[in-house]
Amino acid sequence: MRITDSEPIEQCDCVCVHQEIVDFVTADMPAEEKLYDLAELFKVFGDSTRIKILYVLFEKEMCVCDIAELLHMTQSAISHQLRVLKQSSLVKFRREGKTVYYSLADSHVRTIINQGMEHIEE
Amino acid sequence: MRITDSEPIEQCDCVCVHQEIVDFVTADMPAEEKLYDLAELFKVFGDSTRIKILYVLFEKEMCVCDIAELLHMTQSAISHQLRVLKQSSLVKFRREGKTVYYSLADSHVRTIINQGMEHIEE
DNA sequence: TAAACATATGAACAATTATTCATATGAAAG
DNA sequence: CTTTCATATGAATAATTGTTCATATGTTTA
After folding, report:
1. What CA–CA distance (Å, rounded) separates B30 from A77?
2. What is the DSSP string of B44-71?
3. Around B103, how many Cα atoms within 13 Å sit in the side-chain half-sphere?
4. pLDDT band at B18, cuts 50/70/90?
């Protein structure tokens, strides 16, 4: 997968280019970096373990151990994935003694997941 | 990455499980298969080339060649990615002679991308 | 029918990533 | 201070995937 568009890349070999359309759309495109960040965000949603964790947190805040038990997975695997979710600000957490409780960070998470569900249920 | 949850998996080794919470949340979880499909959908959004293609199609329907030109990528790479987008029903297409024009399939695509943008712009 | 052009696709390679295993950190209790 | 327990993390491995290259398909025009 490519990381940036900064290196020279070979162009399309077609002759049919509609230059005015290309120019028009190019002008309205968000910055390369923003589109890259957006893809990175959706990459986080693009794993079934993380989707399950997010869905679990729809209901209640939960500790790492409970999530692991619920999903029949190891504590380590869940902890690694919670870190990814945390880095994308999709979940937040609070500490209570030895236990760490995780919950959803904001309402965008719900909206995105709900829209995704609607799409696949069509 | 794991494909299904059907094989036996080792459980969490913690002792702290809050069984009533686990049971309560388990009851409300969507089917395993649905959560898997949802992750598959977001995986499609999770690539910067495909995000760029979707963003480009926000504005206008476009042919493969124009998209390739606009994104400075090969026709082959774009065509492969359009296939992925087509398989997830995120884009549709119409043929006009030799040319194939692609456009966004439905409004969920816009909503999902817009919510994602809002999230990263916070 | 042949040539030209737009698009699609199969195979291969390089890069990314989810899980496991072993171990570290940090908090509470004895 | 030592033990116990909940969580975090680094390294390694296995599996997935985006792009390229070569080539195929399908449509139009000469």
Report:
1. 21
2. HHSSHHHHHHHHHHHH--EEHHHHHHHH
3. 9
4. confident
Closest C1' nucleotide to A17's CA: C6
User: pTM value?
Assistant: 0.88
Residue among B91, B102, B52, B42 nearest B73 (CA): B52
Token pair recorded at residue B28: 């409300």
What DSSP state is assigned to residue A47?
S
Give the residue ranges of DSSP H helices in chain A: 19-28, 32-45, 48-59, 64-71, 75-87, 107-120
Distance from CA of A83 to the nearest CA of B (A): 17
Integer-rounded Cα radius of gyration of chain A: 20
Q: Which nucleotide, over all strands, has the C1' atom closest to the CA of A49?
A: C18
B51 is written with which tokens? 């995000």
Residue-wise pLDDT for B79-119, tens only, equals 999 999 999 999 999 999 999 999 999 889 999 999 999 99
A108 touches chain B (CB under 8 A): yes
Contact B17 A66 (CB under 8 A): yes
Residue A63, helix vs strand vs coil? strand
Contact of A77 with chain B, judged by CB distance below 8 Å, is answered with: no
Q: Do A30 and B69 touch (CB under 8 A)?
A: no
**B69/A118 touch (CB, cutoff 8 Å), yes or no:** no
One-letter amino acid of B48: S
Chain A environment of B78 (Cβ under 8 Å): 12
Give the torsion through C-alpha atoms of B32, B82, B92, A21, to 10 deg: 140
Chain A nearest C-alpha distance from B103 (Å)? 13
